[in-house]
Fold these 4 entries.
Entry 1:
Amino acid sequence: MNKYRRRTAFVGVGTLTVGLLLTSPQSAEAANLVLNPGFETAGGDGMPYCWEKSGWGDNDFDFTTTSDAHSGSKAMKVSVTRRVDGDRKALITESTTCAPVVTAGKQYDLGLWYKTTTPDANITLFRHDTTAGWQYWTDLKTLEMQGSWTQASVRTPEVPAGTDRITWGVSVYGTGSATTDDYTMDQVPDTLPPATCTATAEQCANGRWDVLPTQNPVRSMHSVVLNNGKVLLIAGSGNSQEQFDAGTFTSAVYDPVAGTYKVIPTPKDMFCSGHIQLQDGRVLVMSGNKAFPAADGSHGYEGYKDSYIFDPVTETYSRTNDLNDGHWYPSATELGNGDVVSFGGLREDSTGSVTAEYWSDAQQKWLPLSQVNQTWSYWGLYPSMVLMQDGRLFYTGSHVFGNNIPGTGSAIYDYGANTITSVSGLQNKDQRDQSASVLLPPAQDQKVLTIGGGNIDSNPDANRLTDVIDLKAANPTYTVGPQIPQGTVDLGSGPVAETGAQGKMYVSAVLLPDGTVLETGGALHNRANPVYEASIFDPATTTFDPVAADPEARGYHSSLFLLPDGRVMSTGDNPGNGTWNHNVSIYTPPYLLKGTRPTITSVIDNEWEYGDTQTITVDRPIAKAELIRPAAVTHSSDPNQRFVDLPLSVNGNTVDLNVTSNPNLAPPGWYMLFAVDANGVPSVAKWVHLQGPSALTTDTASAHVHSFADSLKGKVTEPGKRRTSQKVSTTISGCDRHYGTINVCVPTVFPSEVRSTTAARCSWLQQNDYGRLKVNGKDDPLRLDPNGDGVACGKGDVRTAKKKG
């Protein structure tokens, strides 16, 4: 039984009728790759030859071979008369005789004739992996209700590596019926010559970084790409005690086309807040910094309850109602209905918040505590919570500061059931501090990649680990991925090659329009030792390809994001000595150096609804199109980043794009629409608005949700006893506040190669440009001021330490 389909077993479904004289599988060049496309030849179990019954869930259904045919004497009718959940579908039989042979990297045009009495029907595709066997691939096209015979066609994505056959058919996932006939399947011919390099061979292979002549005017650590193509850069105090004390809080709006910045008045210290784009394109900003830690350890960072909305049109902030709790470093994830859930962070008293927050899009406010499901769990700081296709949340294990949550370090949270189920397999779960996690392209594949990380508290060498999880599995678990390629690291005397298991934390990762992932930036230790390395991860091959590295250090408080023109922008770096890198780097990926780009010449309608077929025109043939959600990134974290494939129906330069019916795959909001040619070269993006709950009316398709991750074997945690908070160390940031100003981070634990002596520690601080450090108070826990003159690592301190030793 196919675990991905959870289909009902039917007697004889997989058994071919003996003695039927039909042709063997056709070659990839055959005109029609579907055997028995009109159901004229009978098979077993009342089904036509080479067709099988399939589906799952609690529903009543019927499969009928009917004489109400488009051509010939037979058609296939699938009916659902009662439904709680699940679907029913008639598919090409999963066998070497019937399932069409395909070639990896190629695309196929699928066609059929249909009549429907329900809006809840679509073309569904499965593939045979030569290693993993048969598995669900994707939904391609929602079928509009039609009372007479109507032709539907759709183009598949490129066939993934390792796939040798596919099967497909029509799913019915609501009450009603779909009658189909005359299936066709043809391989799409190659239309483009190979790409021609327009730069040096090195640049065409590895891309190019350019440091812009104009610096970022603010110390921004939060970057949000707005639906007008500009970028909101939020600094707040910018981790500066001087600006905090003065009440000088800043943001800036960057215009990538003009190359200009506009500084924006900012009402509160949004340093280390949470943020997310609402479905109307405005930016919701939650919490921020109420207070910096005290040198005497009486309190740590404090988060306030305030919340604001930034309007891209007026470029101003306005206040919303308050959160129920303070949340310094909170998560923010949009749900399929346009609402937002938020977890984690530090409260107003510096303890860890165990309060989940819920923003109602309909009411435009944070709901009161009594209306929000609570498990009273502490998820840590910036916990990466990715929305799954069935509406649950996957906590990837990426977080900020120190150890991970107890248990396996990753979990699936079901908000409706209010349960947490642990997910196993994450490597070295307590050293994934400021790793990066991304939902890999396309979102329909439901695979997540987690990259690198370290631990600010224990301060080991950051690692090279990656982990991949398939959330379509019945019992998803992380599996070991390829290690991050090594680059060079500046240990204080200039870059040297990384060795052994050295990797990086503070990783940035961004989804690219060709379906790959760029990872770059990072550092080896807590706010020190920048790593210069970048690579592109290919989800199809599960491999990293090293590319050109950003010449600028990009550690703590750096961010990376995709621009609408297909380039990538990189900002920030805040070493432990308190300085800030205001230089901005732009990465031009190799795909922009392969010749002329395709152009989207028109978008017929930029207001889209779920299950729609939308039409665009292009200036030349394209191989794929997708929606990419614009970035809202900070501290290696953007859990809402996603790439949603749009299957094509092609008629020359007019292309119909088939929009998913499932808002959990593409939560409502503004997206960048890219068209990509067969060489992987993308167009400049057009902005389209995928509408939210109001678009999900009774006469449109409902979400076709497949049943995955439904056999979880991990420990299940029910809501615990109500509590106020989680105790958190005041040194959670890995900084010892006994030394220097609040801007400065002297590590509570030095890297392992630094001996625990005054001389060694002072030498390390000198190499990393810490300069003169005042000792705050009378305590000297790191023994940096043995002569007691109130200055750490002064001229007499090393001599005094040697005498005492």
Entry 2:
Amino acid sequence: MSSSTVVTWLQERTSLAILSERVLTAIAELVQPRELAADSELATEGRPPDGLYILQNGRLGSSLHQPNTAATAGRSPASLLPGTTLYLAELLLDRPCPTTVTALTDVRLWFVPADEFRQLADRYPEINQTLSRQLADQLDSLADAFTYERDRMEALRPYLVPKAKRGIVGKSRYAVRLRSQIRDAGDDRGAVFIFGEPGLEKDNTAALIHYGSPNRRQPIVKLNCGLLQTSGAELFGRAGGKPGLIEWLDEGTLIFNNIEELPEELQPQIVRLLESGTYVPVTRSGEPTETPRVCNAKLIFIGEQHIPEIEHQVTHRIKIPPLRVRKADLGAQVDYYISLYCRAKGITKPRLTPEALRRLQAYDYPQNIRELQSLVERALVQAGETEELTEEIVWPSQSKKKQFRFNLLNAYPGLRHFLRSPWWPDRINYGFTLTFFAIVVAILLFGPQTRDQNFALNLFWAWWWPLILLLFPFVGRLWCAVCPFMIYGEVTQKLSLWLWPRSLKPWPRQVADRWGGWFLFGLFLLIFLWEELWNLENTAYLSACLLLLITAGATIFSAIFERRFWCRYLCPIGGMNGMFAKLSMTELRAQQGTCSAECTTYQCYKGGPQKGEGLETDGCPLYSHPAQLEDNRDCVLCMTCLKACPHRSVELNLRPPGIELWTTHVPRSHEVALIMLLLGGVFLHRLPEIGVELGLSLDLTQFGPHLGWSVAVLAIPVLVPIAAHGAIVAFNSSIEPKRFLEWAYGYLPLVLAGNLAHYLRLGLTEAGRIVPVTLATFGLSGEGWPIWVAHPAVVEFLQGTTIVAGWVLTVVLTQKIARQPWRSLLPQHLASGILAIALWSIIVR
């Protein structure tokens, strides 16, 4: 290529065009053609250049030749195109190469050796003069750029977010999804709306979006919407005056924090900014409106509420999940905060015990992550230099469901061991109850037929009834765990599956939930009438028939349906047990946080093989998950869940008696009907005494009149609560009639007290004769054998005390359930008092 052609090319393509043609001709005479293969290195940073290079064809890449660090992360080599002149200033100023230059493609270059170019520069001072002018121009440009950046940083400094506090901790599906949403929001320039409860560090999520985006080197600022000027000048700038934050930001990120506090005057402008990507600087009154300007910033909105006007315009919506649904991440988060604190204080990191973690998981954290961090730091300060953080040190506030509870299983490890052992209840059921029940029924059928001659009849009426009623306030539905009816039901179920392998039918839950309670109500009504009309208390074979009929129901339904369908929905004794169990001072529950965080198999509910500490079980016989239990009615205390749980989540708590009735209880019409039936049953048991008290001559020898009086006595006491509630509604128009379903549960203590007072007579007189009665059962003389009989005055005192206590508790419970002023509930309190007086008059005598 001729020198004139090279000169023309240099004039048209390179920055050397400012030199005179005489100098360019001298350079053209010295150039040497060179070729460089792709990926070859032309020059290395820090080394002196070997000459002047002019890129003729191809592409070169220029980059810092140093390890990949936070400062250089994500930086790609600068691409150098044809016409680029390399190392002019370095040769003239005797400096090393500032960067490493590599061939991105096969390239062709013109090369002037360093010594020859320096001689040329000495010969032609114009070269140095031209370079000086270029450097001066560049210096002016840099000074202008520096001044702009200084003013820019000065304007943005009060709002800058220097870095993200932390990443998203945890491996739960919520954490994985949140990380994915953050990545997606950072990959484009679309607006983002982040919302969630207080204390979730939503601004940190916004920072993670920015610092994970390609524009991470641009500034990110955060505005508190509640402090913005209503004019918007701070945000949009003033026409002909000071620029606003959007202009200063350029391609940075703008966070609108607490967007729900945005002044109403600014809302239309923010919506326009989202819709069109433009804004208008603020002008003074009377001045012409400015031309709209383009917003290059990425917009992120943060709020605790849904803002439809904003949400409809953004590209990404990110809901930050509250901590209470991320219990699976709690262990990792606590460990992170412990590490953070210990590293800052320079102390040894303690270990969090499993018990402490379960306690933390049992809490719902209304203030979310902020509250958790404060709680962990408080525990570390309290713990000092301990090696472990135990549950005594970690003490979150208690939720309402955990208030006033005391876990017996933690306090008494021996109790936990027993309830997890084969003894409870399997060995008791199959080693004792199964056989003993058969013996009792046989003696009832074939032994003497009166209570003073048949120990099985004495055991059923004088022992079992008073004891089970007495135990309800203490252990709830515990009897159902060793109930012989369902033991025979389980035996039938297992034998039938062995003889006829098949799949048992699933529970018809909808039908059972709707009609099961009414079915057992009907059975209980028939039992009451049968007991009264045929004198079951003193007729052994009829009592046996009653037991056999209930057992038959359990076996039939166990052969058809899986698990204990009869116990859950249809058993009349179970229905009564479940009703009175609501008053119990004990409950079986589970730590919801531990269950949601740790459990993946739900073995306590579904059953499964042994896992860790959890034993192999068939699952809850009543299909109740302990973490979802809110009513003692649905738990028979069989402890299957306690045996199956590998995470020690199950608790056996002491609690205020009946607390569920005024906290989590859901009223049901069939339960209220059963309460009223059990109330009427107490009066039915004392039918002869009612006749005496009222001076009536009741003919109870004829079936028809006896049936009529029995039905009347069952029904009439129910009218008293109904009339009382009608009076409350009549005098207080704000109370709805349907509230009777809720308030009727207030009568439960009085109903239990009335039944217990009735059976106390048998328990305190005839129960003590069990030894001579047992001898008489087998034809032996019981004379001279010890008996234990309470004095009539003691019996009356205990009966009266029971009734009075039942009435007082009824008044207290009614107040707790109704949450109404005492005066507005006066008719119901008077009604319960009338019923208590009536029970006293017919029982205490």
Entry 3:
Amino acid sequence: MRSRTAVAMLVLLLLGTAPAAATGTGATIAVDGLARPVDLLVDEWGVPHVYAADTRDLFFAQGFTVARDRLFQLDTWRRRGLGLLSEVLGPSYVEQDRAARLFLYRGDMQAEWASYGPEAKLAATRFAEGINGYIDWLGKHPESVPPEFRTLGYQPAHWRPEDVVRIRTHAIGENLMWEVARARMVCAAGEGASRYLRSLHPDHEAKVPAGLDPCSVPADVLSVYDKATAAVTFPKGVTTTKDIADATSGSNSWAVGPGRTATGRPILANDPHRGADALPSGRYVAQLSAPGLNLTGAGEPWNPGIAIGHNGTVAFGLTNLPIDQTDLYVYDLDPADHSRYRYRGGWEPITKVTEAIPVHGAAAVQQELDFTRHGPIVKIDEKAHKAFAVRTAWTEPGSSAYLGSLNYQRAQNFGQFSASMQKWGAPGSNLVYADKHGDIGYVPAGLTPRRTGTDYDGLLPVPGDGRYEWDGFHANSELPAQHNPPEGFFASANDFNLPPGYPVVSNYEWQLPYRKQRIDELIRSEPQASVDDSLAIQRDEKSLVATQLLPFVRALSSSDPDTAKALELLRGYDGVASVDSAPAALYETWIMKYLHSGWAHTLLPADAADVLSQTINPDFSLVIDSFTDPDAWFGTGGAAARDKLILDTLPLAFRDVAGKLGEDPAKWRWGGLQYAQFDHPLGSPNVGPTPMGGDYATIHPSFFHPLTYQQIIGATFKMALDVGNWDASRAINAPGQSGDPRSPHYRDLNDLWAAGGSFPLLSSRSEVEHHLDTRIRLVPR
């Protein structure tokens, strides 16, 4: 009996539109660049299993197979990152190209390759050659070119190995937007206003650096940076908002030791939270097998290797460790000559680099890129004689996001794994560890600047006159790793995890503690845990923000009909943001659209409140603190002010939801508002809409756009590994492995994902053969 892919292939071949993602069932493909044959087996869930005779051919075949599934995504990522969009899309993309080029790695390439370990240059070179091999194959089979290229009227471009590492703007850099927001709030309402922006850990009070005028920081100071890090908007297409993704980025991961599992084997689970409104997803699942290397899991589509998964002995997962790796510098320009900025009592020249940006249908455009000693200039205020530059860890060797995973992929024990993490550069990451010997652990890593200067904590912009410098970086070994923690498990959810009094403070701004608290609660409740238990934890939708806010609501009453109905609906709410919950529809609308903004305008002057209420990721721990101790926040009689805030904002939310879901709250559903939809970059075909539960405080995460309710951030990839019994592991990757709309694996996992399901993450070849969908043999030409 033919597999469904084989049937689809037959139909598509008859139509002359065979998809790039399914080159053939039982096909043999001759490729330039291979030394020996490679077997490529695609299982029924679209996961490729690559079997090569050596790692040279393995990384080549990985590039080839990723290109089969994700060529338009790969090509777009490369063009966006290198500043080459105008070359194919025309002059309207020149500004974005210029912005991207400001943040390219321009340092020593020998040091760059060495920083990722001895295999990095080989892996990147062969990976790029594999992508090129597939592009060359398409040259002989133009009918299989992904349809996006035909729609847009250009061909996919060849890669160079350097393309893999020079691009930096896909890294996470959320600190800058908070620096600017904090400066604007301080300008509007004084130094104490920053208290309302975000809770700081360890306990700390942000100080305005000497020499900084917070009012000199323009609201649009990061517009060039935002262009550099933005996704691509295509003609008549859609885009994701990367600034929102950065500001809300997070993940869950945990390792449960053998003493707490039913099998006596460790369990490692991980669900990174990435953009959930773009198609295809930001992770790609694969198995890579060659003598001495057998990796299974997921990684960035544009990176060789596997960043999240296992190597047959060691399992590894990661979450974002929000190390502050970026700073905004403010310079005084020479009023008589804006090509110079003040530095340590003198005037230092701005470094200027001119590059020609190729433009489709027009002559190349010469663009000047300006740099200070700290980084690229992103804005000049001519009238105020000010310049603003962004300093990042991205200019350092070894800071291409997640490529440091090449260092740990051969580790066989915790000591080797820890040693391999010493060169990890970016982004800051919590690496969670388990192995088949029974060990579990945690290794934090990422370039952590040593900031020098009074009141230089990275929380506000700083003058660029030499008083605020980075004195190198802390060694990763200075960060607090754990090996076999006494409680028998370790969990990470981007939470504040530094021990009390720890001497190295990598950051003061962390994600809220509620996901971590709920994970700990659920793991502790099951002393004989299974993989299914970890899958259930990943689906958990109980909000500990809700359970702490709701008691203040339940104590209130109102004679206003809408307010009374709202109070009654929330009075019985258990805080579980399930897709079928009526109270969740009201609660989520209330806190995200009305409560936080009302809270800001109650406590702050209007200008500062406007800045705070426009922040993407409100800090509800501060709202909870203020409700718990109202006099300290609202002033004398604070409880009455708190209650008035609740009673004023609840009916607004009630009428909002009623206008969308109808007047009868009994018929409301949270999934009737919040939905997931994966949007194709060109606008079609999209996958969804799919009703969605969860919120940003739940383990099953869902950060939604407050106007559309479309999920922006979610866990599109999840895995739960049975360490040592690898074929019993589970995974999901929504909406499908392929980015080619013609492929059966374009959307085939969406319904399974939406239902909280998963598929077997297979490692043994016999099991792969049992679930085989497509067999391809790559042979040397």
Entry 4:
Amino acid sequence: MLKHLFLHFPSLLRPRRTWRRRVAATVAPALAATALLVSGAGPSHAAPAWDPKPSPMTTPWTNQVPVDHPLPEYPRPQLTRPDWTDLNGIWDFAVTSRDAGQPSTFGEQIRVPFVPESALSGVQRKITQNDKLWYKRTFTVPSGWSGRHIQLNFGASDWETTVWVNGRQAGAPHRGGYDAFSYDITPLLNGGTNTIVISVHDPTETGGQAIGKQRIQDVTPHPGRSIVYTASSGIWQTVWLEPTATAHITRLDMVPRLEDNTLRVTVRGAGGADGTSVKVTVSADGTTVGSATGTVGTEISVPVPGTHLWTPEDPFLYDVTAELTGTAADKVGSYTGMRSIAVKDVGGVRRPVLNGKFVFQTGTLDQGYWPDGIYTAPTDEALKYDLQKHKDLGFNMVRKHIKVEPQRWFYWADRLGLLVWQDMPSMDSGKTPDTAARTQWESEYRAIIDQHRSSPSLIQWVDQNEGWGQYDQARIADMVKAYDPSRLVDNMSGVNCCAAKDGGNGDVIDNHNYVGPGNTPTEPVRASVLGEYGGLGYRVPGHEWYPGGGFSYEDQPTTTALNNRLVGLLDGMRENTMPAGGLSASVYTQITDVENEANGLMSYDRQVVKVDQARVRAANQALIAASRSLGATVKLPVGQNVSLRVTTPGYTDRYIRHYDGLGFTEVVNAASGDLLKQDATWTVRQGLANKLCYSFESRNYPGEYLRHREFRVRREASDGSTLSKEDATWCPVQGSGGVRMSAAGFPGQYLRHINAELWLAQSGSTHTWDNPASFTEDTTWAIEPPWAP
């Protein structure tokens, strides 16, 4: 749990059981939840009493969820107003066939905003494409809201949502599962007790829409080695009311500009607000640092002198207010972080730079699933917990994997200091999307960008993943970059996987390597990142979703083995892949187990942290620190012949040679025969798999290279495959008295001589050639003039 007491929006951070909540004066205006003034405010008397269902696994927060007012925190921290009413709680509920009209009776109850597939909803059953969900409740508008417009807001509802108030439809149905939406219901109110009815149809993978990892399946644990999970249908984020002026602010688009120490703000509005005069003020610790006046819909430049930069180590946030001036009285509170993100050359390598400086981004894949709430975290403290664990483990980044979280998740990432890669949820991986699906997907993507474009933690959009529902990769990347030029764009995560196609553009090139970490070949324009690696598994008895059903990419027999393997991967990036191979970021799979995936750093129920937290944190911190003082890469003479000499004391007269296709070391001197001298001579080539690394071509067998296969190092021709090229590519790092040659595909494993044979070795691993004795000396080579010209 978090131990830090944050001063920014303190009431947002501490859930209270009271129904009226306020926030600190640093947010102007202060937030408050207004009491629901209604007789029998919840469901009608026809439905039976609500009861929870037993969760397949119990998180520390499962039993802390209030029955009547779950998730009571203000849901929109970057656009706050003083009055609002939370509609979370017990609603009447019914399920009909998808084509049916509103039912005459609602025979069940559901706890909103938990989906009916979840235990926390109190329903807990499978919903299919043939079903339609129905929700119903009543409310009365507080008398203090008289004369204002009433907005009905939804954080998210999956997928097609239709709303009626007092029997009249509120606008058009909303289609989308991950973006917020609202209705002005003022004309539909009756001045007394009002009734809301909501229908939702969610076809999940049988439709063409964005679904991420949702699939229709049994809601209780079952066997299966699947990387897709239980579907989440219907309302899954907070539903709430707020009063506004007729002309009112709907969004603040905020872009920091460090070049001139300004915050560029575009205030968006509705109800005739466009063109209205608006004043934007930026403050810190209650003191105004800058303000400017402009009009709604146009960019306003607000000075922020003496800018305090936002970084993962120091996630400083400024308070922001925007107020319509003149007769239009609307004022909102917000916050921002001053930071920049770009890609530029650093020591001759393209790398992402935060505030102009390269820092290695080390993070995890975060699926955002819960055994009790599925898509919805049980409490705000739970939502915060996973992000805090990233910080505790030393990570500075998180990749939110093909799901979009509530705005409060982004608030916590902003507050805690985590760089966020945000995936656009993919369409079904087994289909080629038709025209209607593509139009819907792109529309929802733009809505998601609009909703989260002002979060300082969010630094990169990830358009598509491993070819799932892929199409028009290059066009989409250009579209996203044009729509939000202030962030990086990844056109495809995992371009080397699963028939994925690289659009060739965007800011990064992104490979997936399991277990890895492997490397992503460097390019002259895009930065090289590793969008997924790891997947190390360890099953914790008593904390398995389906006991005995867990799987991973590489099971570990003990927690000691898990820690050694994970730290070894991190150290390999620090020692080799980052400095020698040009890697700039990596995403470990994954922060928690999810259903039958047992490759989390924590168990699915968040009850157990499987790894040594201090040790993993130290490895991540060392990796980040090394990136800040990164020197130049080791350069070898491309196109020239060299010989590679042993540096181990007592063996320094030996050189690498090939014999009958295998690699050995042998004494070579002036008296040696011509054949031996030729066999001990290699031509340095640019790395077949990475231009920053090198391949060694046999001098007397052109087209054959020094490569590893099944750990043994040999002379072999490349067959043109990616694997063959990687196995014949070596990334040098500076050693004492020479260079150490790390395998491009296996950072942390080195070219080693032992008993005159050449092996791919990792110190302390399980093979005889991994013996740690004299390991560093045996893996260090002097680059000498060639024995054969």
